[in-house]
Amino acid sequence: MSRKPVHLKRSDWASDDRFWKGILEGRDIGTGVTVLFYATEKTGVGPKWHVHPYDEIFIVRTGKALFTIGDTKLEAVAGDVLLGPADIPHKYENLGPGLLETTDIHVSDRWIQTDLEDPEMVES
Predict the structure, then answer these.
(1) In a 3-state reduction of DSSP, which class is residue 11?
(2) Percentage of residues of the chain with pLDDT beyond 70
């Protein structure tokens, strides 16, 4: 069976007119990969502690971020690529100053995420 090319317009996936921000689920175009585009100008802001049942690949397009993947903390800058393995909780935040943009590739035809209580935010 032959598949046809798919051409999506920005308005098909973007949730922001200014930033690269939005989601494209693979099931909507007949593939096994989901792509999330994330952007923020706010220092200290980013996706909170969560987990997926599949691998996630992070591409830092612009800026600088602190990634926490399991017990590992990594500073990443534009051009860096990181792997968040399946079933390992993770988060990241903009270290600033300025814009952080990432493209996050989920190895799944849909976005499946379980938000978790961040162990760094729990009072002892």
Answers:
(1) helix
(2) 98
- pLDDT over 90 for what percent of the chain? 94
pLDDT at residue 118 above 90? yes
pLDDT of residue 58: 98
pTM: 0.93
Considering the four listed CATH numbers 3.40.50.920, 2.40.30.100, 2.30.110.10, 2.60.120.10, the one that applies to the domain covering 18-111 is 2.60.120.10
Q: Where are the domains of the chain?
A: 18-111
**CA 39 – CA 63 distance, rounded (Å):** 10
> For the range 28-33, what are the long-range contacts, defined as Cβ-Cβ under 8 Å and sequence gap of 24 or more?
30/3, 30/6, 31/109, 32/107, 32/108, 32/109, 33/105, 33/106, 33/107, 33/108, 33/109
